[in-house]
């Protein structure tokens, strides 16, 4: 009864939000506010980032103190997200005349706090959140279409085509509307022991055993072959105990399946929110996951972020699929693989992506100034202001800057992975993304523990996906 009540309440609230948004100030309701005060193109004292002198911190000449007296309140998660925004805000304030207040909330409380304000408080002018949340806000009518502002007050240097296309499509667009700018990209990466792959003696052993040359695997078939070779129980001569590892604890294990789903031609849901995985692609991805289990650590199902990363850094694992944050562990002083790791795209060539986007609320009090802030922090020079806060670039041109590439050895692989990624780690289904994650985790755990067959897991996932999606009134 409680569950039914909660679903009914969510539907009622969603309708209320949409209706209230129709009466709020939005980009479509008329011409953006005229700049107040005399305009004089700002000259911002630009910092050096990675040895690059930033030259475009005045919005391509569109900022000149005209937003003096206006305030922008931005909400996000505490930590690097908030710190990155605060750093960029200093330069935006100098150029625009506006003041920027960043309100942040600890992980675990941020989603609830921000959702509540968007529904009832209306204090926030902009939000920086995971993509699935931003798209949920868009479905509920809580954030604005940014296209009218682009048409009227955009910087001449905006260059939307410069965003990595997969990010622009997956982060910025929702149902054909531009609802956000990409802010923090994320993709699963392939980490491998470069020193082992390049060892002539190991190369000879692999050739003798398989008849093939040892190379970084690009296909699923080669991935399994190499994983078997580097697993001690399959090959007593292996220099590592395990050929493969990743996070397989509950809340993380779906990634093992998702990293192969798109590679075999599947998706989580289609454009109408209909499940698109209960097919040959989904089944092959499940079967590959079970094959990988043979070459994974015995404690695989207990490995979360810290445990999985520590095991790889110990030198016992030859290959690992993980988020880019693994780099800080393997590059640490305690790491036994420091300087020995290479980076690539997950085998199969279709890694899972995460990511955060920044959007303007439908009740922004100073919408034009807010838009300019969003544009500013995601501009070619502006996004480099966040790079020291673990916010990697979203623009192709920044990955092409030699100074940026040299700052992080993962960046070439990250660019390739972001460009190839097709599926979001959180299904792009408003209101129920978290529930769908739980459904996937339960099914994947069932398969890994031998409690469900791959086909039974797919059937269960599909039935529960349909149930949850229909419950919030989304089309199938």
UniProtKB/TrEMBL annotation:
Transmembrane segments: none annotated. Keywords: Signal, Transport. The keyword Transferase does not apply. InterPro entries: Bact_solute-bd_prot1, SBP. Residues 1-21 form the signal peptide. Belongs to the bacterial solute-binding protein 1 family. This is Carbohydrate ABC transporter substrate-binding protein (CUT1 family). The lineage of its organism: Bacteria, Bacillati, Bacillota, Bacilli, Bacillales.
């Amino acid at each position: 009864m409680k569950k039914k009540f909660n679903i009914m309440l969510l539907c009622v609230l969603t309708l209320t939000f949409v209706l209230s948004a129709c009466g709020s100030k939005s980009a479509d309701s008329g011409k953006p506010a005229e700049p107040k005060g005399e305009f004089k193109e700002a000259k911002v004292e630009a910092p050096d980032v990675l040895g690059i002198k930033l030259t475009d911190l005045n919005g391509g000449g569109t900022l000149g103190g005209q937003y003096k007296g206006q305030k922008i309140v931005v909400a996000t998660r505490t930590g690097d997200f908030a710190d990155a925004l605060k750093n960029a805000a200093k330069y935006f304030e100098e150029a625009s005349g506006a003041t920027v207040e960043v309100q942040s909330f600890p992980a675990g409380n941020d989603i609830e706090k921000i959702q509540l304000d968007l529904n009832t408080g209306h204090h926030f002018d902009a939000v920086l959140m995971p993509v699935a949340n931003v798209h949920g806000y868009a479905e509920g009518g809580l954030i604005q279409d940014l296209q009218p502002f682009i048409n009227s007050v955009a910087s001449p240097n905006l260059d939307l085509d410069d965003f990595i296309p997969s990010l622009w499509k997956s982060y910025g667009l929702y149902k054909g509307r531009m609802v956000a700018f990409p802010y923090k990209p994320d993709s699963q990466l392939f980490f491998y022991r470069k020193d082992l792959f390049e060892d002539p003696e190991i190369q000879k052993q692999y050739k003798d055993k398989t008849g093939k040359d040892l190379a970084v695997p690009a296909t699923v078939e080669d991935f399994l072959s190499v994983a078997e070779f580097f697993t001690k129980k399959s090959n007593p001569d292996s220099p590592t105990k395990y050929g493969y590892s990743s996070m397989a604890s509950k809340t993380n294990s779906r990634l093992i399946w998702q990293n192969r789903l798109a590679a075999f031609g599947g998706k989580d849901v289609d454009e109408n929110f209909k499940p698109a995985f209960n097919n040959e692609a989904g089944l092959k991805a499940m079967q590959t996951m079970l094959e990988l289990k043979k070459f994974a650590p015995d404690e695989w199902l207990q490995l979360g972020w810290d445990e999985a990363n520590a095991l790889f850094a110990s030198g016992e694992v030859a290959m690992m699929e993980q988020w880019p944050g693994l780099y800080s562990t393997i590059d640490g002083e305690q790491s036994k693989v420091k300087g020995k790791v290479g980076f690539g795209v997950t085998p199969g060539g279709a890694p899972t992506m995460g990511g955060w986007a920044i959007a303007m609320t439908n009740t922004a009090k100073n919408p034009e100034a807010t838009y300019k802030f969003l544009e500013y922090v995601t501009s070619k020079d502006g996004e480099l202001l966040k790079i020291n806060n673990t916010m990697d670039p979203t623009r192709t041109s920044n990955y092409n800057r030699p100074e940026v590439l040299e700052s992080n050895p993962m960046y070439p692989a990250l660019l390739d992975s972001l460009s190839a990624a097709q599926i979001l780690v959180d299904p792009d289904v408003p209101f129920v993304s978290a529930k769908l994650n739980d459904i996937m985790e339960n099914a994947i755990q069932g398969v890994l523990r031998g409690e469900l067959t791959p086909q039974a897991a797919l059937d269960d996932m599909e039935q529960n996906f349909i149930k949850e999606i229909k419950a919030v009134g989304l089309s199938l």
